[in-house]
Amino acid sequence: MRVWNPATGFCFAQKTKRKPPWGGLLMEKNWYVVHTYSGYENKVKANLEKRVESMGMQDKIFRVVVPEETETDVKNGKRKTTKKKVFPGYVLVEMVMTDDSWYVVRNTPGVTGFVGSSGAGSKPTPLMEEEVKMILKRMGMPLAEVDVDYEVNETVRIKEGPFANFTGKIEAIDPDKHKVKLLVDMFGRETRVELEFSQIEKI
Fold it and tell me: Gene3D superfamilies under this entry (predicted)?
């Protein structure tokens, strides 16, 4: 069951009555919403990622996402592409909720608190998986994190799609969107294509 928060527009998972293995919540990876000072979303992302690395919390805090979408405007015959915050003042954090991970996130400069807490001292409620999928898909990002095991200039085989069974050389890697740009030799002419990690394999 999910609970809609009209103040933020996010849908949160309803807390279960299962007894958790530690002080308050289940030890599982979920997405949480963090409220920030206005205009501080990207600074919070950078600050939190630095804290995670310096405090050795990589096994508890995984991804920090500022929901954005690309907008293209044409003015005076010129096309301009800009990034717009989907939820201004909010950052999404994929993490395992423990006392330590809560402390690291909550005390990051620019963070004002977690969204979805029912009261003082209570741990926040995670987002619904369906909503996370919708937000990440809107940004062109995968729901699950995948290890990047490819390198620029590496030759790989395409597994599926219109270029299936062709080989190509990796020109660029986008680990955030889990995509690569390949140069594929098509009848003596190089063609640039963009594919997801799941569509290619090592030779």
Answer: 2.30.30.30, NusG, N-terminal domain
